């Protein structure tokens, strides 16, 4: 399979709610939603506002954003111990970017809620060659490649809330030892409506998502008439939208109008994930149109999701040369248009895994990846992550 086939999924005429699990029992889901509505929000409105202000400063060129973490968090790796290691890695990477750029760095973990995955195909191949329903995240079903465990279970939405709460408790513990500007905030894809909608709360500035400080809408769910955009438009949190290589300038401007009609600094982030082969042609007209519109959106580069390839053995992988090349081109295009290349969005782990390949994509076909542990997309290991962060830092 080519990178294009995996990464160029463009939203078509949106179904009302794309990428939702096929829950077997609607009544059970309603009961779980009612329980979630009674739970306290996981984040506070004041925290959300502080983050939005920091992102606004970054959008204006006065800062950098690092958004990073697992592709898919696992329930088994939530809670204090694993969270502390992940927060430690994020904080180190941010410190490196701060040292390289001389600018404040705002850090967003893909953490404390990244338990749901959109998928391009309804089925995937298991290790024994058989097919099974694609893994949609621990909030939906188990990752183990057993068809019996891939049945969506809405009780997992409550487990997701509990795991997010204990991870957030660790995040807040980490805040006690750092300056407010150096906090790691929580973010995830706003995907599972049966989790997100019941956690929306009324705040002083209108409704806000109580599930995370920052949420993004993915490449597969950003259709204009879809339920995900309606959710993002209704909340006051800072929100992101992934932009793949198929996005049109008109779509990007429509996203500005819909999600940031008042042009609030820090409210809207475009997360560009076009792939190293396509970004040079796909991004310029989009940046030009958004700039002409007068948007104050923050632009960051996700150099992971447009650079996915498959090895002969069937693993998804990504080559660090392609990842670095996309960041370089992103930075060049933004600068050419007088805009600020405001940050990067990475999938990484503090564990010493072999999921991405170091070096060029040629050879990845045959790569041996003996320590492949991701439940979904391939992550940078600590050494690879540090090299990519240094690469971006050197461009600033
Ligand atoms: C992701 O961030 O893991 C993801 C699925 O991204 P995208 O929507 O850009 O494909
Ligand atoms: Mn991913």
Features:
alpha/beta, binds manganese (II) ion, 14 strands, 396 residues, 11 helices, 15% strand, two-stranded antiparallel ribbon, disordered N terminus, globular, binds phosphoenolpyruvate, eight-stranded parallel beta barrel
Written account of the structure:
The chain is α/β, with parallel strands linked by helices and 396 residues long. It has eleven helices and 14 strands. It has an eight-stranded parallel beta barrel, surrounded by seven helices. 48% of the residues are buried. The N terminus is likely disordered. Manganese (II) ion binds next to loops. The site of manganese (II) ion (MN) has 5 residues, from loops.
What gyration radius follows from the Cα positions, in whole Å?
Answer: 19 Å
* H-E string: HHHEHEEEHEHEEEHEHEHEEEHEH
Bound molecules: phosphoenolpyruvate, manganese (II) ion
Structural class: alpha/beta
Average pLDDT taken over every residue: 95
Taken from the alpha-carbon principal axes, the silhouette is globular
Largest sheet: 8 strands, parallel, barrel
- Number of helices, counting only DSSP H or I runs of 4 residues or more: 11
Helix content: 25-40%
SS elements, strand count: 14
Strand order of the largest sheet: 1-2-5-8-9-10-11-14
Termini distance?
34 Å
- Low-pLDDT stretches: 1-15
Q: How would you summarize this macromolecular structure in one to three sentences?
A:
This protein is α/β, with parallel strands linked by helices. It has helices spanning 3-7, 26-38, 45-62, 80-101, 155-175, 193-196, 227-234, 249-259, 279-293, 320-336, 382-395, and strands spanning 64-69, 105-110, 123-125, 131-133, 184-189, 200-203, 206-209, 214-217, 239-243, 268-272, 298-301, 309-310, 316-317, 341-347.
């Amino acid at each position: 399979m080519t990178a294009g086939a995996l990464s160029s999924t463009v939203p078509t005429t949106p179904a009302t709610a794309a990428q939702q699990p096929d829950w077997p029992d609607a009544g059970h889901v309603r009961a779980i939603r009612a329980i979630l509505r009674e739970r306290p929000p996981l984040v506070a409105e004041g925290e959300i506002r502080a983050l939005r202000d920091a992102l606004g400063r970054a959008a204006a060129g006065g800062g950098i954003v690092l958004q990073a973490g697992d592709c898919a968090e696992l329930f088994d790796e939530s809670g204090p111990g694993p969270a502390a290691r992940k927060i430690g890695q994020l904080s180190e990477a941010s410190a490196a970017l701060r040292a390289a750029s001389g600018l404040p760095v705002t850090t967003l973990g893909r953490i404390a809620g990244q338990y749901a995955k959109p998928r391009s195909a309804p089925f995937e191949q298991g290790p024994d060659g058989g097919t099974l329903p694609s893994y949609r995240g621990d909030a939906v079903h188990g990752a183990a490649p057993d068809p019996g465990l891939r049945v969506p279970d809405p009780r997992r939405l409550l487990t997701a809330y509990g795991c997010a709460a204990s991870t957030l408790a660790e995040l807040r513990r980490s805040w006690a030892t750092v300056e407010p500007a150096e906090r790691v905030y929580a973010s995830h894809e706003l995907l599972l409506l049966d989790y997100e909608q019941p956690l929306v709360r009324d705040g002083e500035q209108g409704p806000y998502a109580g599930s995370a400080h920052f949420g993004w809408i993915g490449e597969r769910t950003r259709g204009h008439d879809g339920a995900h955009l309606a959710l993002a438009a209704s909340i006051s949190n800072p929100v992101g939208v992934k932009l793949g290589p198929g996005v049109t300038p008109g779509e990007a401007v429509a996203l500005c109008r819909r999600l940031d009609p008042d042009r609030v600094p820090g409210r809207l982030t475009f997360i560009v994930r076009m792939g190293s082969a396509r970004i040079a042609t796909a991004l310029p007209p989009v940046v030009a149109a958004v700039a002409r519109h007068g948007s104050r959106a923050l632009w960051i580069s996700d150099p992971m999701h447009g650079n996915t390839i498959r090895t002969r053995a069937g693993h998804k992988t990504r080559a660090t040369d392609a990842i670095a090349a996309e960041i370089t081109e992103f930075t060049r295009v933004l600068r050419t248009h007088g805009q600020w290349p405001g940050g990067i969005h990475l999938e990484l782990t503090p564990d010493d895994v072999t999921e991405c390949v170091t070096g060029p994509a040629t050879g990845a076909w045959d790569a041996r990846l003996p320590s492949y542990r991701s439940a979904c997309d391939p992550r940078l290991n600590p050494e690879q992550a540090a090299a990519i962060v240094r690469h971006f830092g050197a461009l600033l």
